[in-house]
Amino acid sequence: MTGHERSYDLLFRDVDIIDGTGGKIRRGDVGVIDDRIVAIGDLSTTGARREITGNGLALAPGFIDVHTHDDALALNGNPMEPKLTQGVTTVIVGNCGISLSPLKPGSPLPPPLNIIGDSDDYRFPTFRKYVEALETRPPALNVAPMVGHSTLRVAVMDRLDRPATSSEIAAMEILLQEALDSGAIGLSTGLYYPPAREAPPGEVLALLMRLAPSGAVYTTHMRNEDDFLEESLRESFETAKAANVPLIISHHKCMGRRNHGLSHRTLKMFDEVRKTQEVGLDAYPYTAGSSALLPEMVEQCERVLITWSTPHPEHNGRDLAQVAKEWDCSITDAIDRLLPAGAVYFHMAEDDVRRIVSYPHTMIGSDGLPRGARPHPRLWGTFPRVLGRYARDLKLMSIERAVHKMTALAAETFRLSDRGRIAEGHFADLVLFDPKSVIDTATYEAPETRAAGIRMVVVNGTVLLEDGKIHKLRPGKVIRRAATT
Ligand SMILES: [Zn+2]
User: Fold this and answer.
1) What are the domain boundaries of the chain?
2) How far apart are the CA of 203 and the centre of ligand 1, in A?
3) How far, in Å, from the CA of 13 to the mean position of ligand 1?
4) Do you know which InterPro entries this protein is assigned to (predicted)?
5) Residue 1 has pLDDT above 80, yes or no
6) For residue 112, how far is its CA from the centre of ligand 1 (angstroms)?
7) Cα of 289 to ligand 1 centre, how many Å?
8) Virtual torsion, Cα 178, 179, 183, 184, nearest 10 deg
9) Which spans in 339-391 are helix H?
10) Which fold does the domain 288-347 belong to in CATH?
11) Which of 144, 245, 299, 353 is most enclosed, with most CB atoms within 10 A?
């Protein structure tokens, strides 16, 4: 046992340790010095500057939100409250093809680039500048950044409604390489969205070839998640395989009533493909999605809520059909009048969500959008909802499995070293929570409410949240891809 010569900075005594590996919960002590976990076991003989007693509480590795759009939120020096209060200690940014960098200030910001920020936020002509900004003014939580393919397209192309030419691909490769050299942990695409819709698999493959030597990962919001879901999965598998890069399918879902139930088949596809290549996936525990307001997305929905609208903020939080009715116009016309805007889309079946979230290889990613007056409740509730509703109440998985999805599985898949487990030598990212009461409280009507049951959150050894109180500190680090030379 180590650490006996010096007392601990933090000592968790008699806590129920859920170590992130999926292994059984066990009672014990955990000692922290500086930013690291240094000892686990019976530490009753050593003193500590601060002791926290378990009393039936569980101690887990801090949750890793693998799918976020917190690129700008992380920069703003705030406590990242929606994530911190869920027990999240690390966020992965740059998802769905969109990242704040590299893009020259003043560039056009076609949707969905505007879901992560506006022109004031897009001020980093190189990826290094973004990373430096995060390091100069560190975030509250750890941030692992990816670079987005749509952002690269906007940076080098005069119009986006066509495939990139070979010289444009070459220009994107240079920007991508700069991002990788500056520590980007991966590349994301958002092939569904207009800025990247016309990008053929060959364009993506050319960029992915750059990833292979670096050990970076590829995440994709696929070309289609409704009527061509299976085709899109196959395209993603094939492109990643051709480049020999690890693939993560973002927010896996079966959209639109006629596609409900397809997860039976798609999860079998994951089982099959995982025999021959590295493929992971993430999901959020809700039957509604959220994004920019787009007419083609509205078609697949039972119901659409407006989360924000620049010209009509008075309709934030309202039902789109209702607004169209009041305006006495078609849905399409109402959308035109509301743009630029964001929306919540009800288009999934609860059975599919349960099946996907409880699939052993699924990680948890909130996909929360920290913009807009009435955000989707996943921004504030995702992790406690999986723990409280899907694991404890519905018994779809054990609490250890649920924690594994949010911690070690995420760290392994995205290659975040020394995080995601309660292990000696690992960073002291920790969450103390009450397994009996942990639950989300955010709803579509009142989305900005803190989850219940999260007692304490520690980031790199610094206590950031305790008993409802947030300390305005910024112990977060930029997690760069480990150099592989
Ligand atoms: Zn997405």
Assistant:
1) 10-61+425-437+449-470, 63-287+348-413, 288-347
2) 19
3) 41
4) Amidohydro_3, D-aminoacylase_insert_dom_sf, Metal-dep_hydrolase_composite, Metal_Hydrolase, Metallo-dep_Hydrolases_sf
5) no
6) 9
7) 9
8) -160
9) 350-358, 378-385
10) Dna Ligase; domain 1 (3.30.1490)
11) 144
